[in-house]
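Good morning,

Attaching, inline, the backbone tokens for the sequence recovery test we're adding to the shared suite. The designed sequence is right after.
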């Protein structure tokens, strides 16, 4: 067991001559007037900060009370850089890495967490089964990782799993076998075709031409391994952050909602016969709300017009009739208005359920009135755009959030939606879910109900993809008008709509043509949509404001210009505006000459044309995942990590991390449990702390900060330095000892002992966890010195190491290991 021997050096203050002796050598100190010192630090716990303040105030008062002394203590810190100040360097790194943000806000009960991990594994199995069921054509592998070398083109960049990034040169036959030739930075690699199928990955997405920063070298595999480890660490941090967010939901409990006796009567108002998938979705949501105490977070993935709204209506009924408020959030005013009208119609027989609407197009007075009624609880169901997420809206008793087409919201809105997910029930509706959502659903992090069965009366949309042709446009419109139908005409931008309207009026002078876009006044947009819904307007010329929610049974032809400028989900949603009746529907997708389009845009168009059947939204999202790459799915901050290892290997590592997240667990231990099996002599100079106070209080306060967490200890140390200057070597040893124990506690290390030939760290971590921590360590010599033997971490040495030098080594080593800590679940 470690002991701390505290030696107090002599300090003499002569009140007559006002001189001092035994000034510390570790800082530049002198007596001087007019010195201001910060007395409090808001980052420290109040108890610790106030102790600093009181001691400092007492000392200053004592000094100023002397008639002859006008002196206060001033320190001028020595600027220490690099290894001369390991504590300062470590503190800076903590701040730079934003370590605090990666910590769980509250520890989860280990038993509950283990149950959650078991549930994830079970859901992952079910998710994979759903994925197989969702593939409409055989069992093709839509998300392949390794590649067939026969499909490579000379000049393509590839990634060899063991060597790194190279450039494909070609395939040549030698005897009876074919070989793949890859150019690397220092030579040419020759790999058999069979072997390359197991070890080669694409660096880019198909048809991309992005160049890697450098080609790896055959003779330097260590650089490649570092790049792989960095990418793996980044992926695992991301997955663990997501997991901790979901684990916090375990701590949220709410009583199950009662199932009203009138629920069957409400459900019977649905005018269609539910499909088998719909019935399953109804059952899933009912079970989430009426049988579980943990808040629901369910994705309803169903193709356009497959009945997702009905699932939401039944969930809204259960929550609203129980006296809770419901938020229904839509990305556009058109979709929000349609939801509002549908909800008003279905709840017209329930006078106690009040429905309100909020959007940016309302006047200030209208917004204020709606917000006030929401705050006082008068409105039971609030429907609207992202205005519902504004700071001026205060919900009195919100219980359910329904989000339609989440992928269409901006980053800030998505963050606000995420903040709701740890406390209220959330139901997300999407025909083409953002791939991240889809992946989480399949991976067990989120519940999903898939509505893949089309209603009996639905028929597939016939899709035409070609370069723009005026004659084709006129012919398509004539055909639709001749059979008594209506037409959507969509362009990506407002600019050019007026010119297009002149063209249409010239071709169809006796046809009523309307125009809709987001810059129009609210009343004008609303009247236009109303006239189109009632059949007054025959051709609706618009931007993509119509892509979601419009249900016009008589509109069965849509023409989309410059379709390459839309995202895959947008194109799919726009095409879904037609084909909602039993008539055959047509979608005409026009683009400029292919030579003027990016490869990515061409891939999107090919995917949309390929997925033209009913119920292929799920499969389309898979394709979108492959086309867009995980950089855009998981955030732009991941793009650098993708560039390190290439898109396919990154995808494989992500898939592996999602499936093995249960292995990435560290069980931290309390600070008080950690024992150091060697003595450390630390000398705390009395003059360093304070001439008028007991230095032992500093020891107690340092220990108290360490018991809190590493972040609090860091702030304590910085506060200490601001007031008293850089500590002397003896005091530095004392602080390092506390840091070592705190870092060991975070890493789950309970004891560190020293033998004649080894340093042993006793821990409960698994070999897999140690291996990953080792890969995350940035310092080569420290990484190579550690081994995992007999369930413990060991570092062998050939000579006896002095205890002070051992402490310094431990500080450096544990600080290096701490780099990988944010990538672990802590419970």
């Amino acid at each position: 067991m470690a002991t701390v021997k505290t030696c107090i050096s002599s300090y003499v203050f002569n009140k007559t001559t006002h001189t001092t002796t035994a000034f510390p050598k570790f800082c530049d100190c002198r007596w001087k007037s007019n010195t201001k010192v910060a007395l409090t630090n808001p980052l420290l716990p109040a108890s610790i900060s106030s102790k600093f303040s009181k001691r400092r105030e007492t000392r200053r008062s004592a000094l100023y009370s002397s008639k002859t002394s006008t002196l206060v203590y001033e320190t001028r810190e020595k600027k220490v850089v690099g290894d001369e100040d390991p504590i300062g360097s470590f503190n800076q790194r903590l701040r730079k890495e934003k370590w605090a943000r990666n910590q769980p806000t509250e520890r989860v009960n280990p038993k509950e967490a283990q149950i959650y991990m078991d549930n994830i594994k079970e859901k992952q199995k079910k998710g994979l089964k759903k994925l197989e069921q969702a593939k409409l054509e055989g069992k093709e592998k839509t998300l392949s990782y390794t590649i067939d070398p026969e499909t490579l083109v000379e000049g393509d960049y590839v990634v060899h799993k063991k060597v790194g990034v190279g450039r494909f040169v070609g395939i040549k036959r030698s005897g009876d076998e074919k070989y793949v030739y890859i150019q690397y930075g220092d030579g040419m690699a020759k790999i058999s075709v069979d072997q390359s199928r197991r070890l080669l990955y694409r660096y880019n997405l198909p048809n991309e031409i992005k160049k890697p920063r450098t080609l790896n070298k055959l003779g330097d595999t260590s650089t490649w391994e570092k790049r792989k480890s960095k990418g793996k660490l980044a992926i695992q941090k991301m997955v663990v952050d997501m997991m901790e967010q979901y684990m916090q939901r375990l701590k949220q409990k709410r009583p199950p909602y009662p199932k009203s006796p009138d629920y069957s009567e409400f459900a019977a108002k649905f005018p269609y016969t539910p499909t088998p998938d719909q019935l399953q979705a109804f059952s899933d949501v009912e079970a989430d709300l009426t049988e579980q105490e943990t808040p629901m977070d369910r994705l309803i993935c169903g193709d356009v017009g497959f009945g997702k709204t009905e699932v939401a209506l039944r969930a809204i009924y259960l929550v609203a009739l129980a006296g809770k408020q419901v938020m229904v959030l839509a990305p556009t005013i058109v979709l929000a208005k349609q939801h509002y009208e549908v909800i008003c119609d279905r709840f017209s027989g329930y006078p106690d359920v009040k429905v309100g609407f909020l959007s940016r197009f309302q006047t200030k007075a209208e917004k204020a009135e709606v917000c006030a009624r929401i705050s006082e609880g008068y409105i039971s169901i609030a429907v609207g755009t992202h205005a519902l997420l504004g700071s001026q809206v205060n919900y009195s008793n919100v219980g359910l959030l329904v989000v339609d087409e989440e992928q269409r919201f901006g980053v800030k809105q998505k963050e606000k939606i995420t903040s709701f997910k740890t406390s209220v029930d959330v139901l997300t509706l999407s025909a083409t879910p953002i791939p991240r959502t889809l992946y989480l659903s399949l991976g067990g992090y989120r519940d999903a109900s898939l509505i893949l069965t089309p209603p009996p009366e639905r028929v597939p949309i016939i899709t035409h993809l070609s370069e723009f042709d005026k004659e084709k446009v006129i012919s398509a419109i004539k055909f639709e008008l001749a059979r008594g139908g209506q037409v959507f005409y969509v362009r990506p931008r407002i600019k050019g709509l007026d010119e297009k309207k002149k063209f249409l009026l010239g071709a169809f002078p006796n046809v009523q043509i309307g125009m809709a876009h987001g810059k129009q006044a609210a009343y004008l947009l609303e009247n236009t949509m109303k006239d189109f819904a009632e059949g007054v307007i025959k051709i609706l010329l618009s931007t993509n404001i119509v892509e979601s929610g419009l249900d016009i049974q008589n509109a069965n032809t849509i023409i989309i210009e410059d379709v390459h400028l839309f995202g895959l989900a947008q194109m799919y949603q726009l095409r879904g505006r037609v084909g909602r009746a039993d008539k055959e529907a047509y979608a005409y997708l026009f683009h400029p000459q292919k030579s003027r389009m990016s490869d990515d845009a061409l891939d999107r168009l090919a995917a949309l044309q390929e997925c033209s059947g009913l119920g292929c939204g799920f499969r389309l999202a898979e394709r979108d995942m492959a086309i867009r790459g995980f950089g855009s799915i998981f955030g732009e901050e991941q793009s650098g990590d993708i560039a390190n290892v290439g898109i396919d290997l990154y995808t494989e590592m992500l898939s592996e991390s999602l499936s093995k997240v249960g292995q990435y667990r560290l069980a931290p231990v309390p600070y008080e449990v950690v024992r150091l099996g060697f003595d450390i002599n630390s000398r705390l100079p009395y003059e360093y702390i304070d001439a008028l106070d007991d230095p032992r209080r500093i020891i107690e306060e340092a220990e108290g900060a360490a018991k809190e967490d590493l972040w609090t200890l860091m702030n304590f140390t910085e506060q200490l330095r601001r007031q008293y200057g850089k500590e002397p070597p003896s005091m530095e040893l004392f602080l390092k000892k506390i840091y070592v124990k705190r870092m060991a506690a975070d890493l789950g290390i309970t004891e560190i002992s020293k033998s004649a030939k080894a340093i042993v760290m006793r821990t409960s971590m698994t070999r897999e966890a140690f291996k990953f921590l080792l890969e995350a360590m940035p310092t080569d010599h420290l990484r190579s010195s550690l081994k995992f033997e007999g369930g413990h971490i060991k570092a062998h040495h050939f000579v006896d190491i002095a205890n002070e030098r051992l402490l310094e080594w431990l500080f450096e080593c544990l600080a290096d290991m701490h780099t990988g800590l944010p990538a672990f679940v802590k419970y």
